[in-house]
């Protein structure tokens, strides 16, 4: 019987540059991105209304987030010619596909985040007494 326990160099099997999951997380992990997507969940919304719905977001961050989501193909901007122009944002069909996984993550948070907080408190209590 031959031994298969020879030492082989370890090759990374998880790569931030190749992993599709990390690329998607790069898009949606920004706190403003998730909130903007949630604000668009029920359909098109104007910029000012979106800014009022999302607590704490600055105009600069809202603009940057919308531009990035538009670039990623998740949000579309519709301009109605008038004076002043009416600008509304909505999810694209691709953006709508993110709603279900985000809802599931939101549900996981509601179900489990108190356990995360408890674990953190236990950890902090254990390791700050050293």
Automatic annotation (TrEMBL):
Entries under InterPro entries matching the protein: HTH_HxlR, WH-like_DNA-bd_sf, WH_DNA-bd_sf
The entry's keywords: DNA-binding, Transcription, Transcription regulation
Keyword Metal-binding included in the entry's annotation: no
Lineage: Bacteria, Bacillati, Bacillota, Bacilli, Bacillales
PANTHER family, sorted: HTH-TYPE TRANSCRIPTIONAL REGULATOR YODB, TRANSCRIPTIONAL REGULATOR, MARR FAMILY
Domain HTH hxlR-type per the UniProt entry, residue ranges: 19-117
Name of this protein: Helix-turn-helix transcriptional regulator
Pfam families for the chain: HxlR (PF01638)
GO molecular function: DNA binding
């Amino acid at each position: 019987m031959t031994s298969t326990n020879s030492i082989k160099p370890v090759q990374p099997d998880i790569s931030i540059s190749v992993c599709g999951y990390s690329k998607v997380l790069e898009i949606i992990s920004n706190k403003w991105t998730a909130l903007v997507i949630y604000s668009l969940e029920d359909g098109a919304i104007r910029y000012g209304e979106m800014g009022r719905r999302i607590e704490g977001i600055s105009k600069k961050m809202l603009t940057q987030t919308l531009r990035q989501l538009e670039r990623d193909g998740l949000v579309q901007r519709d301009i109605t010619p008038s004076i002043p122009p009416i600008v509304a944002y909505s999810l694209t069909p691709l953006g709508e596909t993110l709603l279900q996984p985000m809802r599931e993550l939101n549900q996981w948070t509601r179900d489990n985040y108190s356990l995360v907080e408890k674990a953190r408190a236990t950890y902090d209590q254990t390791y700050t007494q050293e």
